[in-house]
Amino acid sequence: MRFGPALKAFLLCLFIGGSGVGYVWQKNQLFELGKQIKQRETRLNYLNDQNKQLAQALASMQALGNLSDRIKNLGLVQPLPSQIWRLPEPARETQDRLPAPAPAEARMASAQ
What gap in Å lies between CA 60 and CA 67, rounded to an integer? Predict the structure, then answer.
């Protein structure tokens, strides 16, 4: 009895069967990846729509008419002119000429 031809036939069947299993596995992986891509695209579209809705809601909340209505509903009134303090903003030139603040160690030593 010769084992050479039987071994060749076994290896050939193993190669063809392994190729078939590999092909089916690869097709299954492609199908699964396609499902994942579709799910993520659906989620992305949902989040984009939600983002647009929230942006519109924010814009409507920041609208001047909406703010004035909310102020009236809360019972708030415009402050009196005597209640408003106006602080002058220092000019940029004077900010550059101000002396640098002393380090913390020097301030602590002078305080003692």
Answer: 9
Identify the DSSP state of 82: G
Q: Write out the chain's pLDDT in tens, 112 residues.
A: 688 888 999 999 999 999 999 999 999 999 999 999 999 999 999 999 999 999 999 999 888 888 888 888 888 888 899 999 999 988 887 555 656 555 555 555 555 5
First to last CA, the chain: 109
The DSSP secondary structure of the chain, one letter per residue, reads --SHHHHHHHHHHHHHHHHHHHHHHHHHHHHHHHHHHHHHHHHHHHHHHHHHHHHHHHHHHHSHHHHHHHHHHHT--PPPGGG----PPPPHHHHHHSPPPPPHHHHHHHH-
